[in-house]
Each structure stands twice: as C-alpha cells, then as structure tokens.
C-alpha cells in the first residue's frame, strides 16, 4: 500500500451537518427534543415539529443557543394534510428539508393488554401515528430528500425487532417501520439514505409508568446489560451519526440503541 491510497478520514468534519435542514417529528419533548438539540449542535437548521405551537416555540427558542436556523411548524402526523402543510412551512422558512427524523410515537394505555382487551380501533390509533404518520412524512418529504440527496431516520424500537407481550399495536407499528425503512432505502438509493434506530428503554414521559415503578424499573435494568435506562441524548447522538456523512454507506439498516437488550 502506498501513502496515496492510505485510508483518509475527515473527523469530526464527517459529522458536521452545517447547511442541512432537519425536521424532527415529536420534537417537543423526550427523545425528539434531544434529537433536535443534537442535530442543531452538529450545525443543522432544525424544525422541531409537534402538534402544539407553544411546545414547538419552547424548543425552537432553546435551539437559539446553537446559532442555527429554526422555525415553528406544527403537525399532527396522523393528519396527512397537516404534514404536507408543515413541510411546506419548513421549506419556505428554512429551505428544503434534507434530514427527516420520524420520531413521533405513542403507546397509550388503551393499546396495552392482551388481544381480547385491545380493540382494532385502538390498534389503528397507534398505527395511524407510529406507522402511517411516518409514511405520510416520508411521502411528503420525498421530493425534498431527492433534491437534496438527503437522509431519513425512523425511530422504531426494540419492539420493532422482537415481540413484546401486551403491546401488539405498538410492536406491529414498529416492525412495520423497520420494514418501511428497508423498502424506502431500496427505492431511494443511491441518492437518499433511509435508516432506523431501535432504542431500548429510555427515560422519558412515555416510560414514566416504568421508571416510576421501582419493581418494574429494576426488572428492566436487570434485563439490560448496561444496567440502566438510556438518557434521550444517547439516542440523539446515533441519530446525528445516521444523518451525517460518517454514515455514508448505511442505508436500510436498523441500529439497536438498547444497552445490549437485544444482544441476549
Ligand atoms: N422512551 C422509550 O423508552 C422509547 C423506546 C423505544 C422507542 N421509543 C420511540 O421514540 C419516540 C419518542 O418517544 P419518547 O419516549 O420521546 O416519547 P414522548 O411521549 O416523551 O414524546 C413523544 C413526542 O411525540 C409527539 N407526538 C405524539 N403524537 C403525535 C402526533 N400525532 N403528531 C405529532 N407529534 C406527536 C409528542 O407531542 C412528543 O413530542 C417514539 O416513536 C417512541 O415509540 C421510545
């Protein structure tokens, strides 16, 4: 090997997202808020999207510390017209989105239980947000991503790669999201990359029933090789990686961010 063909790295430049325009659904709190901060810290202009303008305004104002662009765009991802309007707003205010993070997700109490208890309507409620909502965003963003040679990151779950008892709607939606990501990766290659994250247990509002129950929390920690819940920032950092040039040969992949939970 000569010096000329020696491998070359541009670190940390390969992680730099300056010039990118990112949309993060469910960006008002928890993992999505941390992802919005992470992408902004890496230099992207970021629209933290959620349903309530006041919540979005709060996160948008937090992002001013990074000296990047931001805007207040709202959407209920279960409402396709809302999603289209939202992406138009972002494109008008910040430029064409080049990074789209489908993070909005729910797992409501009514959808937890054995199939005799959870109705098909409750199944739909979860899937309308977690899966159909992600597809609506991908569909509405497709032209922007194509034009910018951008990247999509879907936030699935360990429930997207293994079954979990009494969470059928959630698990079906997250398995669907993993499959959707693979198909998008095929149809969008080579110009647009699409990848998935599969977080384990992360301390957020979504898991407060677990973190607030010492017995349940202990059993989750015991099942998790790293012996703790993740902080939202620990899901945000791999999102920055997947959106960046450092992940230039990753597409259609599902990255477990689960403290080793699925390694068992
Ligand atoms: N917390 C965990 O342990 C964990 C583990 C694996 C995967 N996840 C996934 O990570 C994502 C974020 O989870 P979180 O723990 O931060 O949850 P969270 O409940 O703290 O936040 C969810 C966010 O999504 C938004 N949202 C909900 N429904 C929406 C809709 N219809 N339209 C637009 N926005 C909507 C909420 O306003 C909020 O901003 C979800 O997709 C979740 O399934 C979470």
Automatic annotation (TrEMBL):
SUPFAM superfamilies reported in the protein's UniProt record: NAD(P)-binding Rossmann-fold domains
Keywords: Oxidoreductase
Xref: Pfam families: adh_short_C2
PROSITE patterns in UniProt: ADH_SHORT
GO MF, one annotated term: oxidoreductase activity, acting on the CH-OH group of donors, NAD or NADP as acceptor
Leader peptide range in chain numbering: none
The keyword Transcription regulation belongs to this UniProt entry's keyword annotation: no
InterPro entries, alphabetized: NAD(P)-bd_dom_sf, Sc_DH/Rdtase_CS, SDR_fam
Family according to the record: Belongs to the short-chain dehydrogenases/reductases (SDR) family.
Protein name, UniProt field: Dehydrogenase
Organism of this sequence: Haloglomus irregulare
